[in-house]
Amino acid sequence: VGKLVTCLIRKTGDRLGDNLDLLLKAVLSKLQRSETLTVVQSLILVYAQLIHTQLEAVLNFLSSVPGPTGNSALHFVMTEWVSKQHIFYGSYDCKVSLMAPA
Question: 66: which strand partners?
Fold first, then answer.
């Protein structure tokens, strides 16, 4: 799922407009329900890719939406990201997930 969304975002770039929030909301919803590492990794990489190109939009979205524990979605995504990043696989995915927050 995440790889398809990432590919869509890469191909459309800034032309997503208001649809970007809808995509981010769908990715967040799926991430909150996912338990499989491969799915979690692919969904977190959607945010990692977007941080490189649309940092402000991603941060605005994640900080304005509540996460599943009552904190912001930004807190939820970053907690998931940091707690699982060390077990991500694939050299490209590892590189992107390490470079995005830098």
Answer: 72
Q: Encode pLDDT of 13-41 as tens digits.
A: 777 777 888 889 999 999 999 999 999 99
- What is the chain's percent helix, strand, coil content, to nearest 5? 80, 0, 20
Which pLDDT belongs to residue 94?
81
pTM confidence score: 0.85
Task: Provide CB contacts within 8 A for 46, sequence distance 6+.
Answer: 2, 5, 6, 9, 23, 24, 27
Pair 7, 50: CB distance under 8 Å:
no
Q: Distance between CA atoms of 57 and 49, rounded to whole angstroms?
A: 12
